[in-house]
């Protein structure tokens, strides 16, 4: 089974779960990285995005819909893909000052694991549920 961390249509916003929502950290404006499982591919990107789009826009693969492009880019489906972002210690401290935080994801495609500081907080297996 191919496990891919595909954060599709990610409108990631980390919201403090307070009545006044004083601490809001929008992750979609931060610089994200897309890497494959063994680290041989590492690209800067923004979200929302999906791996095929990022790979194509960075010249790693050609158009999968042109001629033999689908065969040439088939390897992408067999990789584990990770979208990662880092935010500042100052932003982390603001969020840590609250008892709860809400992580809003606009979409996680098919199979995915969402982790914060290496700790899994969400496992997905169906984009539509």
Describe it.
By secondary structure, this protein is of the alpha+beta class. It is built from three helices and eight strands. The strands form three sheets. The chain has a three-stranded antiparallel beta sheet with strand order 2-1-6, with helices on one face. Strands 4-3-5 form a three-stranded antiparallel beta sheet, with helices on one face. A two-stranded antiparallel sheet has the order 7-8. β3 and β4 form a beta hairpin. The longest helix is centred in the C-terminal third of the chain and has 8 residues.
The helical percent reads 10-25%
> What structural class do you assign from the helix and strand content?
alpha+beta
Q: Termini distance?
A: 20 Å
Question: What is the rounded Rg?
Answer: 16 Å
Biggest sheet overview: 3 strands, antiparallel
Order of helices and strands: EEEEHHEHEEE
Helix-strand blueprint:
Layout: E1 13-16, E2 24-26, E3 32-36, E4 42-45, H1 51-57, H2 69-72, E5 81-85, H3 89-96, E6 101-104, E7 112-116, E8 119-124
Antiparallel strand pairs: 1-2, 1-6, 3-4, 3-5, 7-8
